[in-house]
Amino acid sequence: MTATMTDTPPPAAPKAAGAPQRSGRSVGQILMIVAGGLLLLAAVRMITGSQDLDSAGQVSAALGLAVPIGLAGLAGLWSERAGVVNIGLEGMMILGTFGAGWIGWQTNPWLGLLMGIAFGVLGGLVHAVATVTFGVDHIVSGVAINLLALGATQYLAKLFFNNGAAVNAGGNPKQSPPVAALPDVTVPGLSDALQSVESHHWFLISDLAGILGGLVTHLSVVTVLAALLFAGTWWLLWRTPFGLRLRSCGENPTAAESLGVNVYSYKYAAVAVSGGLAGLGGAFLALVTSHTYLEGQTGGRGYIGLAAMIFGNWRPGGLAMGAGLFGYSDALQLRNGGTTVHALLLLLVVLLVALAAWKLYRKATLQGVISLAVAAVILVWYLVTDTVPSDFVGATPYVVTLLVLSLSAQRLRMPKADGMRYRKGQGK
Q: pTM for the complete prediction?
């Protein structure tokens, strides 16, 4: 009896209920996915003859469209990692466009850029006061921010842009006078060399040259700043004690408080940074995209940024991929129309077949069969047509976004306390 008890191994220690699990992919897996994507894109370009699929111009345009969406998504990431849902990103971007246009035309674009950030921070602080201090429902507060920002900027535009020097400089109630351009960056020598290689249309080599050429030619300084902000956010939130404390406020604020973290301060800081990043995205639209403030120029990018953040699983790398995907599909339909979007149908067929194979391998028979059926329909569409109707072309970025979100939904994990009302001392 004693021997039996001695030989029996002790039970395994139970895992903590809130223990974090490793998420994301390894660097090797990411590199393999990127390499596979490049090979597939190069093959589709050669088969269809659509040279603009990954040209330098296409990549450059995609960057310009992805940056404001990416900054809005990064703003949402900061806020939601601290436990505050920020539906008000659209309003904070609107404030950023107005601040940049208002100060930019009177002084210089650099001060306009700072003022766009400052206006966004102001919107973020209003949201923080409502949600953190007064405990207002986060969705209600965010919607209110959007409505207030729209009404306030419309009123201020009529007040400041519809008289005196502003009218003489080209302003009106719906837009500011033109703002001077911010500088851009081109790597001398490298840009021309890559353009020469791209023009040969070699398999994969020219594709790489086109993509790299778009990344080193006429690159806005705000785009460079956005890339640094993504890298800085990853390092600060995942590699520093400050980031650990901030993320703990979004996972379990009661436990964070018990360890001495001032939850209110971290939530305020996160939402203020969130507003500033959204304001920077709005300033990009006013100073880089159009060189003027225009009423309604955000065009729902704050909401699209939230979708990109969710697609990215509340992480900077995935968020950047989501913003880039939307920017790429949007640039494709804006620059090239139905012919190039038609080439995407073949790419979509290959991806759906690969997805079907994976689902069937994982014994998800129904999902695999559905993916194969959709792939067959799209393949027939590709074979019997030469272009995509203009009505469908305009919807391309939105269809791509919905498709990717639906395919990635099973891997998502939001912060556990995201959107929950917190009161100091509630765990005592």
A: 0.88
